[in-house]
């Protein structure tokens, strides 16, 4: 069975078209967090306010490495802080509004 890939989400009744394949999305308070299927040169994570202004992306933050130890899987639980699983065996917990690293935990 083929799983449909979304390119849009509905936020408070309005359709937001990102023009790329969305992996997951969540509305947490007044922040929209969207993760995308990997695409070279493009962010894998975007956090936006309800006015569609980008608050942060993984490309802006050093704790989301862009080399061989890149982000490979994400988890949006709809709660703060956000947890992102990195392929180096760590979970990064980040602030929803700023993307600031709160904690890095080794899990392997």
Helix proportion: under 10%
Rounded average pLDDT: 83
Number of E strands: 9
Oligomer: single chain
Pick out the low-confidence regions.
none
Shape: globular
The count of helical stretches stands at: 0
Radius of gyration based on Cα positions: 14 Å
Class of secondary structure makeup? mainly beta
Strand content of the residues, in percent?
over 45%
Task: Please give the alpha-carbon distance between the first and last residues.
Answer: 32 Å
- Placed side by side, the strands forming the largest sheet appear as 1-2-3-4-5
* Biggest beta-sheet profile: 5 strands, antiparallel
What would you say this structure looks like, in words?
The protein has strands at about 5-10, 15-30, 30-35, 45-50, 55, 70-75, 80-85, 90-95, 100-105. It is globular. The strands form 2 sheets. It has a 5-stranded antiparallel beta sheet with strand order 1-2-3-4-5, with no helix packed on it. A 4-stranded antiparallel beta sheet has the order 6-7-8-9, with no helix packed on it. It is mainly beta. The chain contains no helices and 9 strands. Helix content is about 0%, strand content about 55%.
């Amino acid at each position: 069975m083929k799983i449909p890939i979304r390119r849009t989400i509905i936020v408070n009744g309005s359709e937001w078209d990102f023009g790329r394949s969305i992996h997951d999305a969540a509305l947490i308070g007044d922040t929209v967090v969207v993760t995308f299927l990997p695409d070279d040169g493009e962010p894998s994570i975007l956090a936006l306010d309800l006015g569609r202004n980008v608050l942060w992306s993984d490309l802006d933050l050093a704790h989301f490495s862009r080399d061989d130890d890149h982000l490979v899987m994400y988890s949006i639980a709809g709660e703060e802080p956000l947890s992102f699983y990195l392929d180096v065996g760590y979970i990064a917990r980040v602030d929803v509004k700023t993307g600031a690293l709160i904690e890095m935990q080794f899990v392997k």
